[in-house]
From TrEMBL, chains A, B, C, D:
It comes from the Bacteria. Residues 222-326 form the Myo-inositol-1-phosphate synthase GAPDH-like domain. Pfam families: Inos-1-P_synth (PF01658), NAD_binding_5 (PF07994). Belongs to the myo-inositol 1-phosphate synthase family. One of its GO terms (molecular function) is inositol-3-phosphate synthase activity. It comes from Umezawaea tangerina. This is Myo-inositol-1-phosphate synthase.
Length: 389, 389, 389, 389
């Protein structure tokens, strides 16, 4: 058995992104599809030693029970997965589904959060041992949570663990409890959502103490990707952006979650931080996320940029992006599993700032310009040691 | 008198771009406008020693006679120049207009092209001496010419000069005759249009022999600027562009020139070369330039990009750019005058590939990615010596 | 003196719409501009006898003091009025400005609203008599007010007048107080804004009792105009609209007013009513109005329509409208003055449903389809008697 | 057997439009889909007596041999037909396919065109008799042909028939030969393409002589539909359209056909005629049709309208239409079969101008305004007699 065998553990393992990632992994492994949208398959990273598609074993947590093969059918209907692949993937999907364990339900959990964390940790350890894996990378692709009020326990590991042991308290949101459990199991962690997750000082402390790398947060797959590409253009040319207005229409589960103003807040905050950083000055930037159920898995974003040129000349740029979010996110999830596994094998710990390329709100780095992020990713990845040597 | 005094000689000195550049230079000098759209005013280039706005003296050639102050009024009506600046600029515009000499008219010129070149050279030398200038940078901002059939004389300086002396031949298009005359006067040359200009092997030879730098070609101010920013995004993310369709609507003189299919050909060729280079493979890329006179100085470009993601998912991006071409081009013309003057002072000669940032079809470089061009520009400019020391 | 001389009294007489309307009227009268955007100048209405441009005398109320000629300069800077017309209009604008009286300030008014109404009425009567006018049409083009809580006094004229006499109460919002004062002065009233204005049962009663026509409300000048044109297309073709999402970006005073959620509410409500009526079933229809000050007088609306065709095929339409609201509204204000004057001369009273063509939220009619509204307008106007006979 | 049984004979019976129409008819008949996109299913036409879905029998001509059920699979892959319907439709598609006869191949046909016409006519008569049909409506949905040079034989029936008998000549393009054969078989004819078809004076003569109605031409399903809706809005509001620029991106067979400039010519001509008629004056109207194969069945049109308002204010509208052409066309083909059958039963002959609603280039009518066309269609249809009585 190869010593490169690597686990990918998905929080939200039966969601659209996870289902697409697992389906795609199976298709790649079977040679049924090219690695379109996979950054680690680019020629620039050809020399980097990473776990191969064959070496990746998938498991996960979820609170819903619709099986992966059923979810794949739904995604084929929605245009995310091709109908003709389904028969070839069904068996692999059922096998992956068998590795999914019940996630943490804040509404129904009784007792201290520490107990729940112990169970999640045990699931991870068992998965790793059962499959003889060199390591397991945990990736959060579950629904966005509302922003979490900051409490002192989030800043201090000892205080946090005391609170976790208190059966009367629920000091961590589910995403952070998952991160805590992953770290306790010795697993690197990736936040693909804007939820709090691992982005609490106490959890950063824990990761560093345990020598574990982590990355995040909020996968950059649409409007923000374009903004981090276009804003540097205006800046490099000395053109003054006056306003940057945006509207996002989305259906699917994400649309329903984000229509709730409280949940949307964390998404909007993370987007606004980036834009201000990119332009170097605050601009008028109204931004909306609308739930439009009939769009299904499709996400349509319209941005209108008003800018000023020489002698005050008024000009504009507008764009419409029509993307399938799960199709854009899924290959990046596979990329992150490979890269974070390699970083772990390389002995890196703490926030992996070099992975800013993947995120709207990068942890461990304040670089938002996409081209710079690309260069840094390439340089960092080429510097990684051999995997599984 | 400062030894930094530098000439900017515009071919097409009464056109929209030139008039905007001169108006803007006057406004900058008078502190009436910020240097929006000027790349050399960016903080990244703050340490580079360049001729100041006060040190630049303007002259030029043109075949039309409408004066610069009259043209400025027309451009205010078109929304390019602000009405309220006109009174403050009128005197400066009349002074600049007095430095404009009659250009080369292929239709009315009698005799050998060498005679015409001599006159153009003499105009430049006289301008440099009359104003005691350290050097004069010649920038071609005249109308786009049709593509020129290649002849052996374009490749060999001796053959070329023999042909120029032949009263029966017109071996060079006006843009190249202007470049030849500029080099003969010891002046660096910049091609801001897609015309042949200095981009002939024989003229490259001449520039290198005379120790003169040159730069070009075809200022990147709209659709192509966006393409060189967006295409690398798709590539870096491993997304496969399937088609990239474009339509450009433009009025003004440029629209009228380019509606002629022959003239448009050189513009379209230069755009297509760049797109193929950026994406690394040929894609379906229909492209149109339409003359829509009522748009005046405004240029509207619509691009539709169809791309494929993970497992063949079909997605699209479309954008509409609404720009005032002269407002975008003029500050770049001033930037190029400053940078090329500094390169000359620094002893550089031949094609300045580090200026690819400015051009659709860069001479001396095959880098089309905007972010890379930006980095190279900054690095190169920071390496220039002191100006006028 | 012609017995056709007709007053146009503008509430918000120094606002952008009013200034543009008055400037345009002066330009039309002087033969300096064609009646572009004036519906009453269309060939279809050529035979309708209406007050001529020469017969219209302008006055109004406002609470701001910046003079009309100063406002016209600002609007020229904003691209709404052409610079070259200003000198020819200045004298006429000053004359019109002299006919503007201080409006009703709810914040500073002391005493019963009846007193304020009496003053407004007196201003109108004095204007009519001073200029020997056959009639005065009052048009509200002031800023949008927040929605008004309904009280029983709004339904009953006697109760309303009792409340108006009570110095402790402010039973009517300014727009409705203006409508009340206009009716009491014997003047027809037009609501060009979404404010309550004349649209209260007690005021309808008063108008009918006094034999006065009125029209409204909320001038249809952009996104809604398009919706009332496009929605019937989908319906006539049996295509099923699934969602109709909209974003409006606007600067100017209107943007600032509408950014306040409370003010925007009346605008959004009026838009939603129309869409549901047009499509015959409720659809997902998120709609935003954003204040983007740098856009100035420009209003940019983006709409995304997702619709379903045969066998469930998914398709979409999106549009971007870039309009100058004052340029679109002003000629309609002149049209309404002419048409409502003619209706008054014709003896009509109450809500003029045939004018639904002009409004987002038509009073006296539930027809929202633009083509039907056009036919009804034409038929009604052709049926009017001779004016001023 | 009902005396309402009606044939629908499709020229190009295995093309995308025909396959979608037949699939949809089967689905409607089986109650598997609602009649979305069918105009004859609208409440406004509820009282009109038309052949029911159950009464329609399908046959046709084609020159390709891929079977209808195979084509349906391709269209499901392209997003036009829903995958889940295919199993239920397969048998019906095979039955319809058995009624398809070999079409006319100009390249391989030997001998006089009259011989070919006789064969086509015989196919129609046999179909009608075999199924005991009251009548057969022939609808041309084959690929667009290049414009046909006009010859005197097209104007005179006797000359035409003499030429048809000449084995050395091919006086009619395939679409017109099909129309001729249909009329000779006593069948009404509908031109859903821009090809010449029935629109030749000699064929009009023949139709009138034989008491047969016909309709055409060029189904209005996308950009032109929008233009006939939007242009009347500008006109009704007195706004002056200055330019109307359009770009159409299409893949599929249609894209390939129209990329050939000669074929596109008939499409572009038909579009331009309509726009000029709608606006009442010529405007700058560049229009492109680009073949973009990766778009498959999708058609994307971008239009940019520049217009002028009061006092010369410059504004714009742009829209992007993303349609599936076959999904839009197919229900109209069914509508036309029903309506033209009813017109025939009603004794009407010649061009059915009241069907202008369906066409870009209406025969027998010069009304291009969509709303007016809708009204005329409704009025005309309500005036039809009982069908099959």
């Amino acid at each position: 058995m190869s010593d490169q065998r690597t686990g990918l553990w998905l929080i939200g393992a039966r969601g659209s992104v996870a289902t697409t990632a697992v389906s795609g992994l199976l298709a790649l492994r079977a040679g049924l599809a090219p690695p379109t949208g996979c950054v680690t398959a680019r020629p620039e990273l050809a020399e980097v030693d990473l776990p191969s598609w064959d070496d990746i074993v998938v498991g996960g947590h979820d609170v819903v029970t619709t099986s992966l093969d059923k979810r794949a059918e739904q995604l084929a209907h929605a245009g995310v997965l091709p109908h003709h692949l389904l028969p070839s993937l069904a068996e692999g999907l059922r096998a992956a589904d068998a590795e999914i364990r019940d996630g943490y339900h804040p509404a129904t959990h009784r007792g201290a959060q520490a107990t729940a964390a112990d169970r999640l940790t045990a699931d991870l350890v068992s998965f790793r041992e059962r499959h003889g894996l060199a390591r397991v990378v945990v990736v959060n692709v579950s629904s966005t949570e509302p922003p979490v009020p900051h409490v002192p326990e989030h800043d201090d590991l000892a205080l946090l663990e005391a609170a976790l042991a208190d059966p009367e308290r629920a000091v961590l949101p589910p995403s952070s409890l998952a991160a805590y459990a992953a770290l306790r199991a010795g697993c690197p962690f990736v936040d693909f959502t804007p939820s709090a997750g691992v982005a609490l000082p106490a959890l950063d402390r824990l990761a560093v103490d345990l020598g574990l790398p982590y990355a995040g947060r909020d996968g950059k797959t649409g409007e923000t990707l374009l903004r981090t590409v276009l804003a540097p253009m205006f800046t490099a040319r000395g053109l003054r952006v006056r306003s940057w207005s945006g509207t996002n229409l989305l259906g699917g589960g994400d649309g329903a979650t984000l229509q709730d103003a409280e949940h949307a807040a964390s998404k909007l905050e993370s987007k606004a931080r980036g834009l201000a950083a990119l332009l170097g000055e605050p601009v008028t930037a109204p931004l909306h996320i609308d739930n439009v159920p009939d769009l299904g898995e499709q996400k349509t974003a319209w941005d209108h940029v008003s800018f000023e040129g020489f002698l005050g000349a008024r000009m504009s740029l507008q764009f419409t992006w029509t993307g399938l979010d799960s199709s854009l996110a899924a290959p990046l999830v596979l990329d992150l599993a490979r890269l974070v596994a390699a970083a772990h094998a390389d002995g890196q710990s703490g926030a992996l700032g070099a992975l800013a390329f993947f995120f709207k709100d990068p942890l461990g780095h304040d670089e938002h310009r996409f081209a710079e992020q690309t260069r840094e990713l390439h340089a960092w990845a080429r510097g990684l040691g051999r995997y599984g040597a």
